[in-house]
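In the design runs reported in the main text, the only information available to the sequence generator was the tokenized backbone. The following block is the verbatim input for one such run; it is reproduced so that readers can re-run the procedure and compare outputs position by position.
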């Protein structure tokens, strides 16, 4: 049974195989409503983590292409082609885009899986279907956001307007480019901004396709642009551009720091960061159902080969049930089918790249050197396919001082540590510089509320892991960054407040 739901239940393997076989032409940037090659003709070859074979070539953009895209975005904004389009019309256009994304969902899901190795069931649900839902939600919010009238003296009238910022840059990671891209693109466009997206060079294909669909849906030229290229070149150029008003980023802490520096050196653009995580999943002995807790905990770290920002990568288990629970989770991990992500019977797909796989395996070696007990997994498999596959890995008895306990792996490697009581559980949960997500499993309602308040994380799940939708914000504390994706709060990142003070 597939542990990750029935999203792919209606799909036929033959349809997936047909889409897999389709050749992918060389890719260009999408700027000003049209395909644009890099000025110098430079390209980046992309390979599939499924089999290590070349997929296509991406245009390798740099400062010149970012300048062109920002100019197109600024023109669309200043002429009002999008920014002054009535809210009801922007709503209609974004709903049309959502419909197109849903119409092409399987095509987009297969394309994304070929690009980054995500298992097809998760790819379909978390990428195009999630992106379509996000576009719809923000489209429906457009004409329901009101200004304010301040309670001033009778002889004055103070109106508070919410206005778009102008040009928004978005730098999107490789693990869920459509889903995370939509979290930034949808509210930015809904508010009336123009957008320039720089996807990861590891996974750019679905966002390029989204730009084409946006044009088909009726977005004006320049309102939505995509420039592909390497982070240190194209990403840095976008971050340093003096005509970009805000920058939204999901990715590593090291890159986030560089983006803040670029803002300070350029025009003090707003920077919204959603960075790494080392999320704690706390299981108390009085959890309502320990078997369900073990199954969901395994899903919470091993789906998409652990390449999820909110992955529950630290499992903290009360000592009274520690050994039995570790054994249960390890059994589930060992039974998961790792393989070709475009096969419906695979539960876990490929690691996104050779570099990421090497990083994962370095954590395995380091954990053993630091004295942790490897319970299962920890090896590369299916190397003969040319792909990048790794077994789900469980380490028990991981010390709070260990690298595996404190640093983000971004791979299918779980660190398990025991605790005695609530006080120790909170201390361990908060013993990293990150604070993105957490979970608590308990039947004690009072304890659940105490844990929610005590754990420093942007979201704390209770008796589940994952599942929060677009209605609630996502973001973290500490070195997990300070940006907030999703919910109505996202509009704060892409709008400004203007006061009209009127003497009557």
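Verbatim output:
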């Amino acid at each position: 049974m597939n542990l990750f739901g029935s999203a792919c239940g209606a799909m036929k393997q033959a349809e997936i195989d047909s889409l897999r076989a389709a050749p992918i032409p060389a890719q260009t940037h999408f700027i000003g409503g049209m395909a644009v090659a890099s000025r110098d003709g430079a390209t980046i070859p992309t390979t599939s983590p499924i089999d290590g074979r070349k997929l296509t070539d991406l245009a390798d953009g740099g400062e010149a292409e970012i300048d062109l895209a920002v100019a197109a975005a600024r023109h669309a904004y200043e002429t009002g082609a999008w920014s002054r389009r009535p809210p009801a019309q922007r709503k209609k256009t974004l709903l049309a885009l959502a419909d197109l994304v849903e119409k092409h969902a399987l095509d987009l899901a297969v394309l994304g899986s070929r690009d980054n190795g995500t298992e097809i069931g998760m790819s379909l649900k978390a990428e195009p279907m999630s992106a379509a839902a996000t576009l719809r939600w923000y489209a429906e919010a457009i004409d329901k956001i009101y200004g304010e009238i301040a309670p001033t003296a009778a002889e004055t009238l103070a109106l508070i307007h919410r206005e778009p910022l102008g040009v928004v840059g978005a730098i999107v990671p490789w693990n869920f480019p459509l889903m995370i891209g939509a979290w930034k693109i949808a509210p930015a466009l809904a508010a009336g901004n123009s957008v320039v997206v720089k996807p990861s060079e590891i996974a750019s294909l679905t966002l390029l396709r989204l730009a084409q669909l946006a044009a088909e849906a009726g977005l004006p030229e320049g309102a939505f642009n995509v420039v592909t290229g390497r982070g240190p070149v194209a990403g840095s150029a976008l971050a340093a551009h003096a005509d970009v008003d805000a920058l939204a980023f999901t990715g590593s802490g090291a890159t986030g720091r560089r983006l803040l520096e670029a803002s300070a050196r350029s025009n003090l653009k707003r920077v919204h960061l959603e960075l790494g995580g080392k999320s704690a999943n706390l299981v108390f002995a009085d959890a309502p159902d320990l078997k369900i807790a073990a199954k969901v905990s395994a899903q919470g770290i091993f789906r998409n080969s652990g390449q999820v920002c909110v992955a529950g990568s630290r499992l903290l288990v009360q000592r009274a049930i520690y050994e039995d629970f570790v054994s249960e989770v390890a059994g589930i991990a060992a039974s998961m089918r790792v393989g070709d992500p475009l096969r419906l019977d695979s539960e876990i797909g490929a690691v996104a790249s050779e570099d990421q796989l090497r990083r994962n395996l370095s954590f395995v070696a380091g954990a053993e050197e630091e004295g942790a007990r490897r319970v299962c997994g920890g090896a590369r498999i299916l190397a003969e396919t040319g792909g990048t596959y790794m077994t789900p890995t469980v380490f028990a008895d991981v010390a709070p001082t260990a690298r595996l306990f404190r640093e983000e792996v971004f791979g299918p490697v779980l660190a398990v540590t025991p605790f005695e009581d609530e006080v120790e559980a909170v201390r361990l949960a908060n013993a990293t510089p990150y604070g993105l997500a957490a979970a608590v499993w308990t039947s004690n309602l009072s304890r659940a509320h105490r844990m929610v308040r005590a754990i420093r994380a942007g979201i704390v799940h209770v008796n589940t892991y994952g599942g929060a939708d677009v209605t609630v914000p996502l973001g973290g504390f500490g070195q997990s960054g300070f940006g907030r994706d999703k919910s109505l709060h996202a509009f704060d990142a892409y709008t400004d407040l203007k006061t009209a003070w009127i003497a009557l």
